[in-house]
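Go through the following before class.
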Amino acid sequence: MRYIALILMSLFSFLSFASRDALDVAGVWETQHKGTYVSITTNALGHPVTGKILFSDKERAPIGTQVLSNFQKDGRKWSVTLYSIERDKDYEGQIYRKGDILNIDVSVFFISKHIEWTEKSKADVEQARFEASNNRSSKLPE
């Protein structure tokens, strides 16, 4: 009987994980630059409207910087404008969710790049903030 319950729980977990819609991109994501977290927020209709840096341990990535904008539904993806802090440039791209990964595809002329961000919980972000503040305070001169 326990095995049946375990199988059913696993099946329900899998179905809830698999049922996440590719267009459901709202949430908090850790970027490919580990230690930088972006929050994608939605409007009243549930459509994403902006992606801003929520927290970063990088000096060049200030909190509140908008890195995703101009969300337009494009089939099973969102066409977006992606701001690169490193290059201080905007790029056009597409984003979509696959499980707990946000896939970002950017093409410039003949060059294409695929980027993956990982979904994070609020607890993950708070832990990262705590660790970053401890690292900063341990580097202060005595």
Remarks:
- Confidence is low (pLDDT under 50) at residues 8-19, 138-142.
- The two ends are 62 Å apart (CA to CA).
